[in-house]
Amino acid sequence: MDLDAGIGEVLDRLKELGLDEKTCVIFTSDNGPWFGGSTGGLRGMKASTYEAGYRVPCIARWPGHIPPGHTNDSPAMMMDLFTTVLNIADVPPPDDRVIDGQDIMSLLTSDADSPHEVTFGQAGPRLAHVRDARWKLHVLPPSDRHAEKTAESETWVDWRAPDGVTLLAPFEQARPSEHPGLLSGDQPAPMQLFDLKNDLGEQKDVSAKHPEVVQRLKTKYDTMQRVLAETTTK
């Protein structure tokens, strides 16, 4: 089903039922684009630890509560939607476990800052990076499959397809000239620090210029590593 048409049917049905102004509708994605999708000018893709692998659109609609056209680029995570929806519905969160998500309704309605001091990203089962509102520390070397496959000039075949249909090749994706910085930047290495406020494309490692930021974020990373180790062994 066409995406726009499908969403339109949901919204139309809510209106028919008289629930459109009583319902908060949230549209988002689980990760960045695969081969053939636009990264919006960011570095990386799905399965990458660069911003294009993690950063996704989030569109929310709730007449009378969320101002039309409002935007906020403060960091939030998918797990925040659980807590947010519970609070919207006036349902108390479970008290028999730790709920990591935060209520982000203030982000949807105002210029509020993120409720998270830092957020973390994983590469498979491994904790890969930590970031705050401005800085992102790649403790593990960032992965960039898009650049690797483009350099190899390989097509990508979806082995799950019965006929092995070849999907859009990496070099058929949006051209680097259309999205500057997509395939460029410092080569991946451990402990790289990027200033996302001034370098959203993660082009220049500035860890040598800001050792205090590296240390602060690395301390947060180490703390989370210990928490995860204790949690998974229980």
TrEMBL record:
Keywords (A to Z) from UniProt: Hydrolase
Transmembrane segments: none
UniProt superkingdom: Bacteria
A Pfam family annotated for this UniProt entry: Sulfatase
GO MF term list: arylsulfatase activity
Domain (Sulfatase N-terminal): residue spans on this chain: 3-91
Family, as annotated: Belongs to the sulfatase family.
Protein name, as recorded: Sulfatase
Annotated source species: Crateriforma conspicua
